[in-house]
Amino acid sequence: MAEKGRRDFCIECRKKTEYLLRKRDIVKKIRDKEHTFAITVAVCTECEEEMSIPGLIDKNVQEIDEQYRVAEGLVSIDDIERLMKIYKIGKAPLSLALGFGEVTITRYLEGQVPSKEYSDIVKAALSSPVYMKQKLMENREKLTDAAYRKAFAAAESIESLFSVSDKMLRVIAYIFEKLEEVTPLMLQKLLYFIQGVYSALYGKPLFEEDCRAWVRGPVYPEVYELFRDFKYNPIDDARFALLEGTEDALTDDEKRVIDLVLNTFGMYGGKVLEKITHNEDPWVEARKGYGDNIPSNELLPKERIMKYYILINRKYGIDTEDGLRMYIKDMLDKALPIQI
User: Fold this and answer.
1) CA 334 distance to own-chain centroid
2) Any alpha helices (H) in 32-138, and if so which ranges?
3) How many CB atoms are closer than 10 A to CB 222?
4) pTM over cut 0.85
5) Chain centroid offset of residue 234 CA
6) For the chain, which has fewer Cβ within 10 Å, the N-terminal or C-terminal residue?
């Protein structure tokens, strides 16, 4: 990393000079174990010696802390803050609920590095509302009635909110990891295309949820309910910490299909993807008898979706990005839907 145009006093040159910001590896021993950290240094553009500039030491401390936590698999301060937001619980009550000392979470928020044991407990609470409920019940007598009821209600709400299948959650987590921005409409269509392509290539659906033929195209109602409760960009919502890491449980074949869809369909916005689905037989068949704006909860059977995409695969070869792009082009050119 280099950043030009900034100047400070260089003790070697004895004058103010321009400097560049670069990365340098250092080795530090922490808890009897050596670690290599990449830290930011300022280098004089004239003598090429390192310079001491305001704020750099604090930045290095933060860089080392973050990299150490990643290397050791420890929770970050951001993780702990998200945990507090998710379960609507303060620092001291959270400490007690997790079975720690009353000031433990406060110390972690101030920068103290947690032990692996305590870090794993925080991680488990962050990833599972069921586990959090268990910890709350185990330490019920240590909490005030108000703190207990508020946190327990939040845990139950999140547990019911994330009621879709594990496979669906893993796919959603993978989509969020790969794409910078995903609207609810776009997500619904991507899930539908992933289901179609996967079932065509492997002869079985990827996830168990049934799709419905709504006015705006194919929709998974469970996912719709999941997103309706989010008042702003879902990716930025603290509750989506519950999804972190779940994408790792997908198989290579599953990831391959998702990548195929994201690298093709994922290049378009939700309204364009909706237009494609409105030209496809599964949605058209399910909507027969309904007007353009008449609500419907008609089922889009997995078998019909698979049968349609098997035919699409035979014509276009949708096991490749080129094949999928040809199909998308034809559908956007309003080609006639393939009859099945």
Assistant:
1) 34
2) 56-72, 77-86, 91-97, 104-109, 116-127, 129-138
3) 14
4) no
5) 9
6) N
Type of residue numbered 232: Y
298, containing H or E segment: strand 298-300
Residues 47 and 13: beta-carbon distance below 8 Å: yes
What Rg value do the Cα atoms of the chain yield, rounded? 26
Label residue 304 exposed, middle or buried (CB < 10 Å: 0-12, 13-18, 19+). middle
Ordered mean pLDDT values, 10 residues apiece, the chain (340 residues)? 70 94 92 90 94 93 89 88 92 96 95 92 88 96 96 86 80 85 90 97 94 91 74 57 67 96 95 92 84 78 95 96 96 62
Q: Where are the domains of the chain?
A: 6-72, 77-161, 166-332
The count of residues in the chain is 340
State which amino acid sits at residue 289: G
The Cα–Cα gap between 331 and 20 comes to 51
Which is nearest to 190 in space by CA: 268, 246, 113?
268
Q: Identify whether the C-beta of residue 201 lies closer than 8 Å to the C-beta of residue 314.
A: no
CB 209 within 8 A of CB 157: no
User: Letter for the amino acid at 90?
Assistant: G
Alpha helical stretches, state H, 128-269: 129-138, 145-161, 166-178, 184-202, 221-228, 252-262
DSSP 207: S
Pairwise CA distance, residues 38 & 112, whole Å? 21
**What is the CATH class of 6-72?**
alpha beta
The residue type of 334 is K
Helix 184-202, helix 221-228: angle, nearest 10? 150
Q: 43 forms bridges with which residues in the sheet?
A: 20, 50
Provide the CA 146 distance to its chain's centre, in angstroms: 32
